[in-house]
Specification:
Layout lengths: L2 E4 L6 H12 L2 E4 H10 L3 H12 L5 H12 L6 E4 L5 H13 L6 E6 L2 H9 L1 E4 L5 E3 L18 E2 L6 H15 L1 H9 L2 E5 L4 H15 L2
Parallel strand pairs: 1-3, 1-4, 2-3, 4-8
Antiparallel strand pairs: 5-6, 5-7
The protein binds adenosine monophosphate.
């Protein structure tokens, strides 16, 4: 099974990807995490993409598709995409790539959350600096302030989770990513799920959608 999680920044894609990849033994691919790791390691790709991430703009499609293809070359497990595709060109690139491997995307799950709640969620999001576990200071805070429950490392505020960049990312989403909903509806594999609820409830609803629709 190959899945795509679609939704506003802050709609819960990362949290759901972690739960669902465990539940269905899927390989979780977050292009955002790949880019942040590359920036931290100061690789050539990291240097190339750093300005886009800090400004909240999209990395060019060609580079994103190259990174994805390199990652997937030897991967035989089912895939769960989180934060990719983000443009119609990326979606078409992914379809072509899957077609060349005799595969397809089985479901695109859209996490439906309204714009204002996304702004609040991103502002109160904290991420573990080591294992990348995601917290929300209002709805799912860590047991010990500032520290990850799972690995004890420090929690951090992502550089692009500040008010100006959050607004830019939301604008970018509306202009460039929202058209993907129509693209996937046209392909007949688009499934909206109400986001913004308890993550376990959202995950259970997604699991039910997959059970009923994916053979
Ligand atoms: P995310 O962690 O998914 O919110 O992504 C963080 C940032 O990484 C985005 O604001 C973009 O700058 C960049 N990025 C991640 N995925 C993509 C993608 N599929 N296409 C272009 N840029 C991306």
């Amino acid at each position: 099974m190959n899945l795509v999680l679609l939704g506003y920044p802050g709609s819960g894609k990362g949290t759901q990807a972690k739960i669902l990849s465990g539940k269905f033994s899927l390989f979780h691919i977050s292009t955002g995490d790949i880019f942040r790791e590359a920036i931290a390691a100061k690789t050539q790709i990291g240097v190339e993409v750093s300005g886009y991430l800090s400004a909240g703009r999209l990395v060019p499609d060609k580079l994103v598709l190259e990174v994805i293809k390199t990652r997937l070359a030897k991967e035989t497990r089912g895939l769960l995409f989180d934060g990719f595709p983000r443009t119609v060109d990326q979606a078409q690139g992914l379809d072509d790539y899957f077609a060349s491997r005799g595969q397809c995307i089985d479901a695109v799950v859209f996490l439906d959350v309204d714009e204002e709640s996304v702004v609040g969620r991103l502002g109160s999001r904290r991420t573990c600096s080591k294992c990348l576990k995601i917290y929300n200071l209002l709805t799912s805070p860590p047991a010990k302030e500032g520290l990850c429950d799972s690995c004890g490392a420090k929690l951090m505020l992502r550089e692009d989770d500040n008010p100006d960049v959050i607004r830019r990312r939301i604008g970018v989403y509306k202009d460039q990513t929202e058209p993907l909903a129509a693209y996937y509806k046209g392909l007949g594999n688009f499934y909206p799920v109400k986001g913004g609820q308890d993550p376990e409830i959202v995950a259970a609803e997604i699991a039910a959608v997959l059970k009923n629709n994916v053979k």
